[in-house]
Design brief:
There is one protein chain. The protein is mainly beta. The chain is 12% helix and 35% strand. Strands 9, 10, 11, 12, 13, 14, 15 and 16 form an 8-stranded antiparallel beta sheet that branches. A hairpin with a 5-residue loop joins β30 and β31. α8 packs across α9. The longest helix is centred in the C-terminal third of the chain and has 19 residues. It is globular. 38% of the residues are buried.
């Protein structure tokens, strides 16, 4: 056996490479992507999906105890039930069928639909339903679920609904879809027709349904199905319409909207019903509390309707009452489309147009307290946004408004806001912060508000009770902001991990985690004992349970080594400060998913040569199993390598970059080299580049597979000189590579960049002839014209980009006119001798395509 193994190893290392070939464009369609990974509560079952770039994919089910791997053709979006008895998934229609329909110009709503599959794990059988609209799988201890299916053309009235209506109602046209409330384990089921909306309680004990039928007069039927008793109760039946329905987590409270209006402009009211008592009909709470809602306002159908976790508060949206559309009295040739621009407008007209649909549907959060039968209006036109935490322990919520600073968005990229504390019980509001442009956090116990002030780069705490503030970091020797910031705007913080149960705030510097006493009485404590700064490892908390309000004592930390680009996981015991390395490898390791009720983790890791397949382990990360093999065909292709390189710029800055080498690299040969860049890129050393058609950037795997070197330099910028800075970093780096490595063919150098990289490419070739060819994707060529343009994707003026963000001029066109010209490739176009290919798209929402034309 020993000799056979050696023979195979030698054969694989020499002769096998002769069968490998370069990647070409015909290979892209079969290259696959792993996604949608999920793990069951007890960690014994794992599911994921692998799809080709073009074509039909597979869903996989891995059973960790047996190592058995099953698959389903065209399965997608897997989800386990709480008890792992079921794996519920979509079945995608065949790729060729959908494509053929699109070629025939079939409308989107008539294209083939997903089906639903239910995999019964213990019986190893599947149940399938065609024409899926959506489904709900409760999180609680129940085997029930609900499935909404597209209404079949020949459906007949359901007996349950028909019994609730008189004979005259039975002939009404059906307006909804078919809902199946289903227990796949017991096979118990209930079909309901004409379903407009439905929802399950989190514990799965109740399913609430709105059924609607359209005829000369529309009708609404609201009912609740009790999954334990298997009884459907009709609670409400009237002429009219309904658009929203909600249950609390325990399935004991119901809320829905209802309007008796028959026209298109319907005014809705909010109805509430206590399912525990089941006395009388649902109560119209907005009717009885009319004074709590502003005059000429009403409950909005566009507002989100939901209970808090405790069931003590019901949230809904209000808005001005809708008005009927005026009758159209003009012919098409008489109509004129007109936008009026005014310098006093808070938003520019194109920005307003981008937000038009959202503004037309804007609602303002209100709350109803079932016990006291009280409504409080929380948000308002002057304070539009309020943050509701469904687990909130106190009466306060954090709200904010950017109204005073909306005009500034055109030239200031900070995005300022004023912050308020709103007492949900009383409706009282108090402004606590002005012109804040970064993180603001209300502690879970609602005693403190933490925020970062960009003006002095400090973290601060506001005491809600005392209404006093404490600066936590101003006098510390460590920087809690990004010291590598090189745009002409205030540096942003590294962020915060959260709050501890003993009311301590945990924030990040570049490397470590720090714990702060919000009273300011106790000194800050470095939770990671300075290990991050000492070893240049960036540590960040990984929140494994989305339900947690507080930081756990045992924390899992993500680790990234700045110099080597290794990554992995550490554990931290916050009480004793003990740190333990769990996994640190020469890969880019993805953040893991944890089984809800077990110490089982799944995650991916990748490098330039290794696809990010899926791995599973326990919490020690010692026994690791690879459970997927996404692209086994990669072994048949020539594949390059990548390494870190360093050099000093012409200005004396020390920089890093990446040098990709071609497959079967021979240092005695000469290779053509492409130079690609954006800003900083070296941290992407271990990123896998999938062979696929991409936007106008180079395809790393394609070029290295076909005999090219690729050099990717990091770029640092000096305010006012983005073009010269790019020239300094890119050209000095390229020259350093030529001086250091004889295998680079200096007569065959290419340069390429896209968007910001496209601009830099266009600028650099006005200053040097060292490149044989250049490609600039979506370049800005004339900053004097681009400054006054519009980013059509957002509708914002481009001025802020030049004054304070990526374009880095640092002032207005009138203050820094010479710099706008100096940095514009257009004004030096007569110096270009390098053959240049430009690519631009006329629907580019970021860079105006006429910049390419110029």
């Amino acid at each position: 056996v020993f000799y056979i193994a050696v023979f195979i190893s030698v054969f694989s290392g020499t002769g096998f490479s002769q069968t490998q070939r370069p990647i070409d464009h015909s290979d892209y369609d079969d290259w696959k992507t792993l996604s949608k990974q999920t793990i069951s509560s007890e960690g014994k079952l794992i599911s994921y999906v692998i799809n080709p770039f073009k074509g039909d994919g597979w869903m996989y089910l891995y059973q960790s105890e047996s190592g058995e791997l099953d698959s389903l053709f065209r399965g997608s979006n897997p989800k386990f039930s709480f008890n792992s008895k079921l794996l519920v998934y979509h079945i995608k229609p065949q790729f060729d069928t959908v494509r053929a329909a699109k070629l025939k110009k079939v409308k989107k709503e008539k294209l083939p639909k997903d089906s639903l599959g239910i995999w019964l794990i213990e019986d190893n059988r599947q149940i399938k339903f065609a024409k899926l609209k959506n489904y709900q799988l409760p999180e609680g201890e129940t085997d029930w679920m609900a499935i909404l299916l597209e209404k079949p053309k020949d459906s007949k009235p359901d007996s349950l609904i028909s019994d609730s209506l008189d004979n005259a109602e039975k002939s009404k046209e059906k307006s909804g879809d078919r809902l199946l409330i289903f227990n796949p384990i017991s096979s118990d089921s209930l079909w309901l027709e004409d379903v407009k909306h439905y929802t399950f309680s989190k514990n799965g004990k109740s399913c609430a349904i709105v059924q609607m039928r359209k005829d000369s007069i529309d009708s609404v039927l609201v009912s609740v199905f009790d999954t334990e008793k298997q009884i459907l109760d009709t609670l409400f039946f009237r002429e009219g319409a309904s658009e929203n329905i909600s249950l609390d987590q325990m399935g004991s409270q119901l809320a829905f909207t209802y309007s008796q209006d028959t026209g298109s402009a319907k005014v809705f009211n909010l109805y509430y019903f206590d399912l525990k008592n089941k006395k009388g009909e649902p109560l119209c709470i907005s009717c009885d509390n009319a004074t709590a809602i502003a005059e000429d306002w009403s409950v909005s159908k566009n507002g989100k309707l939901y209970f808090n976790d405790a069931g003590s508060e019901l949230y809904f949206g209000t808005a001005p009452k809708p008005e009927p559309e005026p009758k159209d009295t003009l012919t098409n040739d008489e109509k004129v489309s007109l936008d009026i621009w005014n310098w006093k407008d808070p938003y520019l007209q194109p920005h307003q147009l981008k937000q038009l649909e959202d503004e037309q549907k804007r609602t303002y959060t209100a709350v109803y307290f079932p016990k006291s039968d009280v409504i409080r209006q929380l948000a308002s036109p002057d304070i539009e946004r309020i943050t509701i935490h469904k687990k909130a322990e106190g009466d306060y919520s954090l709200a904010f408004s950017n109204k005073p600073y909306r005009q500034e968005l055109s030239w200031d990229g900070s995005g300022y806001r004023d912050y308020y504390l709103i007492n949900r019980s009383t409706g009282e509001r108090q402004k606590i912060l002005e012109k804040v442009a970064s993180i603001v956090s209300l502690s879970p116990d609602q005693k403190y508000v933490a925020w970062y002030a960009i003006a002095d780069s400090s973290w601060n705490i506001y005491n809600v009770k005392d209404q006093q503030s404490v600066n936590l970091t101003l006098d510390m020797d460590f920087a809690f902001y990004n010291k590598e910031n090189d745009v002409p705007n205030e540096a942003r913080p590294h962020g915060m991990a959260g709050w501890t149960e003993d009311k301590q705030l945990v924030i990040y510097d570049r490397y470590d985690l720090w714990q702060f006493d919000p009273t300011g009485k106790n000194e800050a404590r470095n939770l990671t004992n300075g290990m991050g700064r000492q070893k240049q490892i960036e540590f960040r908390y990984i929140k494994l349970d989305k339900e947690l309000q507080y930081l756990p004592n045992q924390m899992l930390l993500y680790a990234f080594v700045v110099k080597s680009k290794q990554s992995g996981f550490f554990s931290l015991d916050m009480k004793n400060g003990e740190m333990q390395e769990l996994l640190l490898e020469d890969y880019f390791v993805h953040r893991p998913l944890k089984a809800k009720d077990a110490e089982v983790f799944i995650w991916q890791k990748e490098s330039f040569q290794i696809y990010p397949d899926l791995y599973v382990s326990d919490s020690s990360f010692k026994e690791i199993n690879k459970i997927s093999n996404t692209n086994p065909q990669q072994k048949n292709y020539l594949w390059g390598t990548v390494e870190l390189v360093d050099w000093n710029t012409f200005d004396g800055d020390s920089l890093s970059g990446l040098l990709y080498k071609p497959a079967n690299f021979d240092p005695n040969k000469k290779y053509p080299m492409l130079v690609y860049f954006y800003e900083r890129y070296a941290d992407r050393l271990n990123v896998y580049h999938q062979p696929k058609p991409i936007r106008s950037v180079i395809n790393f795997t394609y070029y290295t597979s076909n005999g090219y070197l690729i050099f990717v330099p990091d770029i640092v910028y000096k305010t006012g000189y983005p073009g010269p800075s790019a020239f300094d970093c890119v050209v000095s780096g390229t020259q350093a590579m030529l001086n250091k490595y004889s295998f680079i063919d200096g007569e065959n150098l290419g340069i390429q960049g896209q968007s910001w990289g496209g601009y830099q490419t266009a600028y650099i070739i006005t200053q040097t002839n060292m490149f044989k060819a250049a490609m600039a994707g979506a370049p800005v060529s004339n900053m004097t014209r681009a400054y006054g343009g519009i980013r059509w994707g957002s509708g914002l003026s481009r001025a802020f980009q030049y004054e304070e963000t990526q374009s880095r001029i640092g002032g207005t066109l009138w203050e820094k006119r010479d710099l706008y010209i100096l940095n514009s490739p257009l004004f030096f176009a007569d110096q270009i001798q390098t053959p240049l290919l430009m690519m631009h798209n006329d629907k580019d929402g970021a860079v105006p395509w006429y910049q390419g034309i110029e």
